[in-house]
Amino acid sequence: MTRDQQPAESTPIERRLLEALGPGEPRSTSPDLFDRVLGSIADDRARRRRIRRGALAVIAGLLLLTAIVLLVTPTKDGHLLMHWWILELITTAALIGLALWLGPFIKRFGRAYAADVFHDNPQTGKSYIVLTDIVYYLIFAAYILFTVNFEPRESWGLNVVPAQVAYEAARLGGILLIIGVLHGLNIVLMPVLGRLFSLNRRLPGR
């Protein structure tokens, strides 16, 4: 049987394998066996990437928790003290981890939105996503460099005090607020830009 003569529907054995090994929701299959194999390979690679990322996140969390336990200093009265630079490093690491996690998360759900907005010129939509990624990471890097401390502030001590805890919490809240506002503006402005690009493309050439 040639490739053009293959049945449009999968065989009963293939359907049973898809029901047993596939996800809970039904998935449309391609009549071409080669396309189905490529799709299975892509799904397997994506699943392996998710597993690796989850394992790395768990390992990093355990290492961070171990470092915190080892670096916390007990006092004579039984209280635990932490040097100021430990909390500073933890907050900076949290900001970096937030940037590395939040960027792909936003991009994952933004591709469909950008494809719908720039449906007349998809190449422009892809370029727009890349440019917004660059802006996103530049904002995160600049914020971290602007807010990091290399020595205790006047209201701090050599150990962690409530004033430093409030400052570090404000660092985390500040970057979330900045990214949230910019992301909201991007959602509002993207349809306007898509409309302008579409009109510009439809204008007759001079």
What does this protein look like?
With 206 residues, the chain is mainly alpha-helical. The protein folds into 2 domains: 1-71, no CATH class; 78-206, no CATH class. It is built from 5 helices and 2 strands; from the N terminus they run ααββααα. A two-stranded antiparallel ribbon has the order 1-2. The chain starts with 11 loop residues before the first helix and ends with a helix.
SSE layout and pairing:
Elements: H1 12-21, H2 33-71, E1 73-74, E2 80-81, H3 84-117, H4 122-147, H5 162-202
Antiparallel strand pairs: 1-2
Helix pairs in contact: 3-4, 3-5, 4-5
Short description:
The protein is mainly alpha-helical and 206 residues long.
Residue share in helix: over 70%
Low-confidence stretches: 1-8, 23-28
Strand segment tally: 2
Mean pLDDT: 75
Strand order of the largest sheet: 1-2
| Individual helix count | 5
Question: In angstroms, what separates the terminal alpha carbons?
Answer: 53 Å
Give the ordered list of helices and strands: HHEEHHH
> How is the biggest beta sheet arranged?
2 strands, antiparallel
- Proportion of residues in extended strands: under 5%
Q: Quick one: overall form?
A: flat
Oligomer: single chain
How many structural domains are formed by the residues? 2
Quickly give the structural class.
Answer: mainly alpha
Radius of gyration, in Å, reads 25 Å
